[in-house]
Design brief:
four-stranded antiparallel beta sheet, binds iron/sulfur cluster, Rossmann fold, about 325 residues, about 30% helix
Length: about 325
């Protein structure tokens, strides 16, 4: 499969006063193939949501390049920009906060239609009904308001809204983390079904590694604004290489009490440092149980350790 989007050395800085700079994204590179789901995981504050927001143009990047369908997005013409905005949509984390409580479901879902297409009133209504049915709601819901729905139903409305412009690429920013556990699997299954039916490409941002494993073809692990490991989903979970990935995976409980009691855990020590004051060299060095002298001086580069499996750690570069 060809790449739909390539992210090359992406940077996003925020100036936080008194000359200090918060490096939310610090030189991240990865690509997403047409039709696949790329999971982006890491603790809160690692830059994964900021990455999604830069890709959907809610934030301007501070450096690097985004290449979409072979074109640098910073050089798109007016028409190409419009097409990009139609093609790339976002599903937000909080279905309560992301829907305007004063708008009916019909008007919320039709926002994308109103921006990108000129439809008659009847055609607009028919398109909204079709979208509601696609996400497991029905046309009777169109005249209601967000407060009349449960969290899972609101997220379905958010998904219908994102699909209105007929996008090719959906950025799903922690779409299940605000939902009850019992509802999470329903929303993930819905996203997987829609992807198959419409041939969509997903960037799935999450901190819950167990759900990311279920939905993703490939996974990237972020730490303090940098990617530390990228691999096929199965490969990453079977053979994690980076100490941070191993610690994240070992925090997932195994649903077998005997295995759970005997497994060896790699515990994460301490808190994630501030991205305003990241440690020199490897950013994970202050929490890593394998830290060496070189780690505090030299930033490790991403290297390919197996086909399609890359990792940034001196454990694999030192000789
Ligand atoms: Fe740990 Fe060093 Fe690898 Fe960083 S580079 S993860 S500190 S071993």
């Amino acid at each position: 499969m060809a790449d739909l989007i390539q992210i090359q050395d992406l940077k996003k800085n925020f100036h936080v006063g008194t000359g200090r700079v918060l490096k939310a994204i610090d030189g991240v590179s990865f690509s997403i193939r047409e039709g696949e789901t790329f999971g982006l995981v890491g603790e809160s504050g690692c830059g994964k949501t900021t990455t999604g927001r830069v890709l959907v143009r809610l934030y301007q990047p501070s450096g690097g390049k985004i290449v979409y369908k072979g074109k640098d997005t910073s050089t798109l013409s007016k028409d190409e920009s419009k097409e990009f905005c139609r093609d790339v949509q976002m599903i937000f984390q909080d279905p309560y906060a992301s829907l305007n409580p004063r708008m009916s479901v019909e008007d919320i879902v039709a926002e994308g239609l109103d921006i990108h297409m000129k439809l008659t009133r009847a055609a607009r209504r028919a398109a909204v009904h079709e979208l509601l049915e696609l996400v497991g709601l029905n046309k009777e819901h169109a005249g209601r308001f967000p407060h009349e729905f449960s969290g899972g139903q609101r997220q379905r409305i958010g998904i219908a809204r994102a699909l209105a412009s007929k996008p090719r690429f959906l950025i799903c920013d922690e779409p299940i983390s605000a939902l009850d556990v019992s509802i999470q699997a329903q929303i993930v299954n819905l996203l997987m079904r829609i992807q198959k039916e419409l041939g969509l490409t997903y960037l799935f941002i999450a901190h819950d590694l167990s759900m990311v494993k279920y939905i993703s073809d490939r996974v990237g692990v972020m730490y303090l604004g940098s990617l530390v490991e990228v691999a096929d989903s199965k490969d990453l979970y079977a053979n994690p290489m980076h100490p941070y990935t191993r610690a994240l995976l070992s925090a997932i409980p195994i649903p077998d009490p005997d295995l759970e009691a005997t497994r060896q855990r790699e515990k994460l020590q301490g808190e994630i440092p501030s991205p305003i004051n990241a440690p020199p060299g490897c950013k994970f060095s202050k929490r890593c149980p394998h830290v060496m002298d070189v780690c505090t001086k030299v930033m490790p580069e991403m290297i390919e350790l197996a086909p399609g499996h890359t990792c940034a750690c001196h454990l694999y570069t030192k000789k």
